[in-house]
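A.,

Following up on our hallway conversation. Structure tokens first:
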């Protein structure tokens, strides 16, 4: 991996790379989360014969203090670098992302029409109503963090190892991204699989509808009926993994 692993990684937050066949899959985690939330999908794709890159995005997987000085440009740069590593050794690439990782997936899809397919899982592609005013007010008072948004999981006994708090400045950078991404959605022409939890307490499900309406390529949709935001660790985990693998196989031939 290109990003050096810090010595204080949260257990299970390690980036992961797998050498498989000529088709590759880039797997991207969400905001304040880490690769642990996407490991099941990454391993399912590897078991299906795909080469896999699952990077740890800058500032994630350690402590919130490491994340505060980072922003969307840093996360996008690492996602782009991971894509280039994968594309250099694979004939075709599929990109899969959860939440903010889904936003990165959409962004890369807009920039790289050669991508074989995109899987956006509870992706954030628009600014939630009222969110910016709330976050900017916090920033104006000197607050650099507030309550956590991770581990929105319905299944009892399952917890995501996301940060227990949300950093204000990085969140503002993600809201800025949402405004720019809105102008790029119609550039997404690759086949697109959109996975949506019916009940999501982090990203309003309407984001999936916006993405489906604006993308110009073929769109498939899968709904998770028994899971919250982190569906990759929730009751519909197996459904999402199988749908992702089946889609990736189809679009890579």
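Then the amino acids I'd put at each of the 253 positions:
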């Amino acid at each position: 991996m290109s990003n050096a692993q810090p010595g204080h990684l949260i257990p299970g937050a390690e980036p992961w790379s797998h050498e498989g066949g000529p088709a590759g899959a880039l797997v991207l985690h969400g905001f304040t989360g880490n690769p642990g939330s996407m490991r099941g999908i990454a391993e399912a794709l590897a078991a299906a014969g795909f080469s896999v890159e699952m990077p740890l995005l800058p500032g994630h997987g350690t402590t919130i203090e490491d994340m505060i000085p980072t922003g969307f440009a840093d996360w996008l740069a690492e996602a782009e670098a991971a894509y280039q590593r994968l594309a250099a050794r694979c004939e075709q690439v599929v990109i899969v992302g959860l939440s903010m990782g889904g936003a990165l997936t959409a962004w890369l899809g807009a920039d790289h029409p050669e991508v074989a397919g995109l899987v956006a899982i509870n992706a954030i592609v628009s600014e939630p109503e009222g969110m910016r005013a709330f976050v900017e007010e916090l920033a104006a008072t000197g607050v650099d963090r507030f309550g956590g948004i991770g581990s929105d999981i319905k299944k009892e006994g399952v917890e995501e190892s996301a940060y227990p708090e949300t950093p204000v400045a990085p969140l503002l950078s993600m809201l800025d991204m949402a405004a720019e991404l809105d102008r790029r959605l119609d550039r997404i022409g690759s086949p697109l699989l959109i996975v949506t939890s019916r009940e999501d307490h982090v990203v309003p499900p309407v984001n999936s509808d916006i993405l489906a309406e604006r993308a110009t390529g073929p769109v498939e949709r899968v709904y998770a009926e028994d899971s919250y935001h982190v569906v990759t660790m929730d009751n519909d985990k197996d459904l999402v993994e199988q749908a992702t693998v089946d889609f990736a196989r189809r679009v890579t031939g």
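The chain has one domain: 17-252. Curious whether your intuition agrees with the design.

B.
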